[in-house]
Amino acid sequence: MDGLALEIGEVMLERGIQFELDGQEQNAANVYRDALDLKFSHSVNRTETLTRLGKIVLWQGEPEKALSYLEEAFNRGNFNIWLYFPLCEALLQMRRYEDGLERCRLWYNSAEAQNDRYQQAQAKLMEGRLFRQKGDADRALQAFRDSDQIQPGGLSAYYAGDVLFEKGEFEMAIRYIESYLPNGEGENLAWANEILRSAKEQLSLR
């Protein structure tokens, strides 16, 4: 009985994960909240529960509330590297740009130490978004280019092309946008095609 009591947090965590897999995010969030009132046999599982709950709350449009869970997970120290994305996204949405950039640097360094190129690219992409929202287009562009160099043709290429278009560097904008198009989807793809059309039109007027 004592062993079960110690593991009840883990039982709830697994139940929440199953709800997530079934697309039932609200049920998952409710289970994760209940789990946090219980004991866990392993500290890392409480950290994962905080991370998963924070991620769901963020996607539900409550970055401030999400940040309370995500920062608690971060401060515990025993978190998975994928915590950094929702953590930085929450800071971006709350316009806490310097805090977000500091976390991005930690994210990139951690990914580099793990030789995880996907996470390195994601960290640079987020860094670019933070710089852009902060109003620093030049540093944003450099971060997007760094990300694209690690993993070419993804969202970083789209963002680089968008910034270059705004700066009037139409030829370079076209190069980045064309590299993004095969992987593009949704609203970003529609806007990428519009950037491409407009950039070519601007060049034809020269």
Characterization of the model:
The chain is mainly α and 206 residues long. It is built from 11 helices and no strands. The termini are far apart. The model has no long low-confidence stretch (mean pLDDT 96).
Short description:
The chain has helices at 2-21, 25-35, 43-59, 63-76, 84-93, 97-113, 117-134, 137-150, 155-166, 170-180, 186-204.
Pick out its properties.
3 domains; 0% strand; Serine Threonine Protein Phosphatase 5, Tetratricopeptide repeat; 206 residues; mainly alpha
Tally of DSSP β-strands:
0
Query: Would you tell me the overall average pLDDT?
Result: 96
Approximate strand percentage: under 5%
Number of helices: 11
| Backbone CA Rg | 20 Å
How many structural domains can be distinguished in the coordinates?
Answer: 3
Shape: elongated
The parts where pLDDT drops under 50 for at least 5 residues are: none
CATH architecture of the largest domain: Alpha Horseshoe
Major sheet, described briefly?
Answer: none
Q: What is the fold-level CATH name, i.e. the topology of the largest domain?
A: Serine Threonine Protein Phosphatase 5, Tetratricopeptide repeat
- Straight-line distance between termini: 79 Å
**Which CATH class of the largest domain?**
Mainly Alpha
- Return the string of H and E elements: HHHHHHHHHHH
What is the topological layout?
Blueprint: H1 2-21, H2 25-35, H3 43-59, H4 63-76, H5 84-93, H6 97-113, H7 117-134, H8 137-150, H9 155-166, H10 170-180, H11 186-204
Helix pairs in contact: 1-2, 2-3, 3-4, 3-5, 4-5, 5-6, 5-7, 6-7, 7-8, 8-9, 9-10, 9-11, 10-11
